[in-house]
Amino acid sequence: MLVVAACVGYLIYSASGGSSEYYLTVSELRSHQQAGDVRVAGVVQNDVLRSDGGLHVRFTEKDSTDSVVVDYQGPLPDIFQPGITVVAEGKLGADGIFHARNVLAKCPSRFSTTPYTS
Amino acid sequence: MGGFSMLLSFWSGWRQNAVMIQVGRRAFYAAAAMVVLASVALEIALLTHDFSIAYVVEHTDLSTPTPLVAAGFYGGQEGSLLYWTLILCVLGSASLVASSRLGPRLAAYAAGILATIATFFLVVLVMVASPFDVLSVTPPDGLGLNPVLRDGGMLIHPPVVLAGFASFAIPFSFAAAALLAGRSDAAWIAHTRRFALLAWTLQSAGLVLGMWWAYHVLGWGGYWGWDPVENVALMPWLATTAYLHSSQVQEHRGRLRAWNFGLVITAFLLVVFGTFIVRSGVVPSVHTFAISAIGPWFFAFLFICVVFSGALLALRAGSLKSEKEPAAALSREGAFVLQNLLLVGVVAVVLWGTVLPLVSGMLGQERVVGASYYERAAGPLLVALLALMAAGPLLPWRRAGKEAARALRWPAVAALAVLVVMVAAGVRSLPALVTLPVAAGVAATCGFEFARAIVRGRRQGGWPIALAPLARRRRRYGAYLAHLGLVVVVAGIASSHFWQQEKDVTLSPGQQVSVGGYTLAYTGTEQRQLADHSELVASMSFGDRTLEPARATYAGLGGQSLTHVAISTTATADVYVILVGANADGSASFRVLVNPLVSWIWAGAIVIILGVVLGNLGERAPLPVPALVRVRQVS
């Protein structure tokens, strides 16, 4: 029993050390030194530029601290549009642009549309 | 609605008095009947488009097809809680019908615990999340369902998952009741075996349906993303799987009593924990559900459950110790114990990955883990589990001797053969070279067991009754069938994981693309106008088939778009095409994926469920079952 527990503990430790990513705000991103991918959440601004039939996208992502230009190659989530919150996963390049490996959309709600107000 | 809780507060009254126990049980049936009535009322309100009720407005509209309107019952938060309660009450009543045989105290406590859980849900339903709130103004039409959910999957995935979770409250209630009554025998296991199996089957089906839905509808090319919402559904399933196996050790050998109590309690706590995580939004998830006031309620409930069960276990720990010497490591029970430890290990891995953002956020910088964490940490444990599946069934109870070692050569030979073939075919990925041969070993073990039974049957009386042992001991051979199904699932998951290929391309009409040996030719796009949305449809010819990946745009919902993937299933792989967008010059961009053997996952899952159902159909139960049918008639 102890052997199994030790193995599980070791696996968790080694795997989470090697492949966990930091969740940062945009301003933290600028001062973040460590190598490896990070995640940055922010609101998509009104400057979405699509090229190559939508496979290449560039947009500004803004949170409460600052904003950053995100560059991404690949299909975007369906609900992607200005005004929604996305989580970009990738690295800040030397050019000051955040090169995303993945862009995740945070659905406002999975099981309901906007609440009814009147 | 308030009347329900009133009825349920009866529960504190009873103790040893036989009449009061009977009254308590009847009060539970009464509450169940009222929950059924409330559910019928909500369903009628939905189907008759009663837009004076906020819940109806928020989840349906006049253009939604009727089956999806009906599905609105569990489509929203409030309704899904009512659905949970409904399942709990109906199955709970079924489990109570024959419970007096277990002895008055156990039966009474079980009823009390079930009633407490039901009361909690009813209080939440009445106080914070009532599906019957009336709007001050009645709007002419509802808001409708999110387009992602306008799909057949919506009709079946959520109710199955929720029912799987709700039904696990029954084994939990009886386990806690047995602890409370100071009973350490296996009576509660036998009594709730059907409910545990039902919960497990529903949870398995729910997980696979969720994967199927993600794969076919959400359209990102995969079926599992290690998202918290998926993780919290996986963890109870793992714990339930462990329990189904370890409970056999108690039934056969009288061991692992404390462990079984612990597992059932853990599985139920994981269900409550999952509901809390999903509904409270404390962990960043891709699909956040409607976050609402019920988060703190579930947290409080979780806290109470943890304290209550922990105290119970601690209180009874002394009387649960097995007097016998510890089990030999090399025996059937040893294999079960190891299997359980590994499954719990996987639960620990997934749990840590799920709560890491929470824990690290409290300690400083928030961190998250991605798929690679789960693969690296859980992967080796899952492979070890597979290896156990190959060896365990061949080991005898008590202690394994030389005979068992001889039996083990079959899976070993099968694994080696697959390994040699794979290396010869040029496979060099270590995880693939371990997983698939071990899976082949499991298949060999199951095949060996089937063959042995058939040979024995033939020797006894020739071919006509050769299959008789399989039917007579169907519980055992049903389990092997389920194991075989799992091998098929593992082959599908491993192949699509290790050998998935993808390519992003922009093509002009007439151009071709080749991915993983499959060639697709793009012919052009067209715009189609449908009732509630418009579609941009691209045509690609693939052999003699035409694939039509599309993007739908819902003008009524703020121009929200929705990807319709095109999937062509061949025997060895799925060709999966996502239309990313089209350009003014007629060219279009695609992501093309080739996912080997994905269809094996769905096929294997069907075999698993078939194995469980066949294995337990008509099995002589320790207690009569018509209870289930009787309650259905009441509803």
Structural notes for this entry:
By secondary structure, chain A is of the alpha+beta class. Chain A has a single domain (21-105), classed as Nucleic acid-binding proteins (OB fold (Dihydrolipoamide Acetyltransferase, E2P)), CATH 2.40.50. Chain A is built from 2 helices and 7 strands. In chain A, strands 2-4-5-7-6 form a 5-stranded mixed barrel. Mean pLDDT of chain A is 76; it is low at 108-118. Chain B is of the alpha+beta class and 635 residues long. Chain B is 63% helix and 11% strand. Chain B has 21 helices and 11 strands. Chain B has helices spanning 2-8, 18-47, 54-59, 66-75, 77-97, 104-127, 152-167, 169-180, 187-218, 228-253, 257-280, 294-320, 332-363, 371-391, 402-407, 409-424, 430-461, 468-472, 474-498, 598-616, 627-634; strands at 367-369, 501-507, 512-515, 518-529, 534-542, 545-547, 550-554, 560-564, 566-569, 573-582, 588-596. In chain B, strands 3, 4, 5, 6, 7 and 8 form a 6-stranded antiparallel beta sheet that branches. A 4-stranded antiparallel beta sheet of chain B has the order 2-11-10-9. In chain B, helix 10 (228-253) packs antiparallel against helix 11. Chains A and B meet through helix 1 and strand 1 of A and helix 3, helix 13, strand 1, helix 14 and strand 8 of B. Strand 1 (20-24) of chain A pairs antiparallel with strand 1 (367-369) of chain B, so a sheet runs across the interface.
